[in-house]
Every structure is written in C-alpha cells, then in structure tokens.
Design a protein that fits this description.
The chain is mainly alpha-helical. 56% of the residues lie in helices and 5% in strands. It has a 3-stranded antiparallel sheet, with no helix packed on it. Strand 1 and strand 2 form a beta hairpin. Helix 9 packs antiparallel against helix 10. The chain is elongated, with a radius of gyration of 27 Å. It starts with 12 loop residues before the first helix and ends in a 10-residue tail after the last helix. The relative contact order is 0.07.
Length: 256
C-alpha cells in the first residue's frame, strides 16, 4: 500500500492578516490605559489616580471590590460598570462634600477611563455611549446642589468669582516696597493680574521669551502643551522695565 501524506492546510494571506489583526487588537486593548497615560504630566497622572481611587471607594460602599491599581491598569476591571454607576459616583462625591469643580473633574476622568475600557471591548458600546452622556454640574445646578446637600463642602472654594476693582489692583501693585524684591513681587503680581498667567508659567518664564520692543511675551502653556503670544499693556511694560534695572545677575537658566 502507498502511504498517504497528511494534508496540511496553511492559512491564506487574508487569514493571516485577520489573525494578526486580532492579536494586535488584543495587545492594544490590554495596554489602553498605559498608552493613554504614557505622555500625561505627573500632575495629570496623580489626578487620574485620585479620581479612580475615589471611584473604587464608591464601588466598595455598594459591595464591589475593585482595587484602585486594577482599575488604573487593567481594562477588564471595568467589566460590569454602567452609566448608572458612573452617575452614582458623581452623586456620591457630592454627598461626601467635594466641591463642584472637583466633582466635575473626577467625573470626567472616570468617564474617560470607562470610555477606554469600552474601546478595549470590555464595556458594551451602548453602555459606553450612555456613560459619555453622564454630565457634571453646571454652575447654576452646582449652586442649587450645594444648597441642598447635607454634608458640608470639603473645599473652601467659592461658588462665585471674586473680582478686584481697579483701586484694589492699584493698591496691590503700589503697596510694595521700592526694593529689588519689592519690584520682583510687583512684576509677578502684575503678570498674574494683567495676563492671567498660571504660576507654573510665570515660574519658568525666561528673558528670552520677552520682546520688549514689540511688547509681547511668548508663553509656553504647560497644561495644554501650546504656545501663546501675550500683549503687555503699558503699565506692565513699565513695571517690567523697573524690575530689569534691579534684576540680579546670574539667575540660573536665564529665568526672569
């Protein structure tokens, strides 16, 4: 008898492409959180960990054990999360006394994490869309909610903005001593007041970012990773010139 050779069927090129795509999808799904946070700043990663940690606490109070480290690293830990649970997290934060701004920020982070888990195939698409629709508190709704909550707010932030009058601004800027430190402090206050710069932007500002002739400051926005050109009003230019006359030599990195 003639021995028959075993029939070996090798996958066709399209089949190989499908298999490779499935493997790639599985690998990407498992890494979706790490990839999202990879290029975030340390402060942003800390905010994510805080928001997810509170979400873990909220789940624990209803008998669900999802440790923070799992929720931060493993999309599978989000299996079973629904829009009602995310909405409940928002209301839980309110009941614990968190400020409206903090609630909205943390809700946004949890929504994003749930969205990424949906992208990884853990949360069904319909539920993922509902979670996206869980909104934070508007200023008006937040004021109403603050008036109704039983737990005092944890933060001393105010619901309304406090605006300085022109006289108050002048008093702040003119009430500093005529010393090198006084002129430095006056310049910092003036930049915060006239330009609305963030403290971190002001701290890293260098001489090279100033255009005294054009009256422009080139500012790197750390929070948004963008650059802006800010026009200096005349009072700010005068304060800047006064400071540059007494600015100490040898400040590291050419910082202002």
């Amino acid at each position: 008898m003639i021995a028959q050779k075993a029939l070996v069927v090798s996958p066709s090129s399209p089949d190989k492409m499908i298999l490779a795509g499935q493997v790639a999808n599985e690998a990407a799904a498992g890494d979706v959180f790490t990839e999202h946070l990879r290029h975030k700043s340390a402060a942003t990663r800390t905010a994510y960990a805080a928001a997810v940690g509170l979400f873990s606490q909220a789940l624990e109070e209803i008998g669900i054990d999802r440790p923070t480290d799992q929720l931060m690293t493993d999309p599978a830990a989000w299996q079973g999360v629904t829009w009602a649970m995310v909405k409940g997290y928002r209301d839980w934060l309110l009941s614990k006394g968190y400020a409206i701004g903090s609630i909205n920020q943390r809700l946004s982070i949890v929504r994003k994490m749930a969205d990424l888990a949906g992208q990884a195939g853990v949360i069904p698409e319909g539920e993922r869309l509902k979670i996206r629709g869980v909104s934070g508190y508007t200023r008006k709704a937040g004021k109403r909610a603050n008036g109704q909550r039983e737990t005092a707010r944890l933060s001393n932030q105010k619901d309304e903005n406090n605006f300085l009058s022109r006289d108050q601004v002048n008093a702040l800027l003119e009430g500093l001593p005529e010393t090198a430190q006084g002129r430095r402090d006056q310049l910092m206050l003036a930049m915060l007041i006239y330009l609305g710069m963030r403290v971190g932007e002001l701290e890293t500002l260098t001489i090279g970012q100033l255009d005294l002739v054009g009256g422009i400051i080139h500012v790197y926005r750390h929070k948004t990773d963008t650059e802006s050109q800010l026009d200096m009003p005349r009072p700010l230019r005068e304060i800047l010139r006064d400071y540059l006359e007494v600015r100490p030599e040898g400040i590291p990195g050419g910082r202002l």
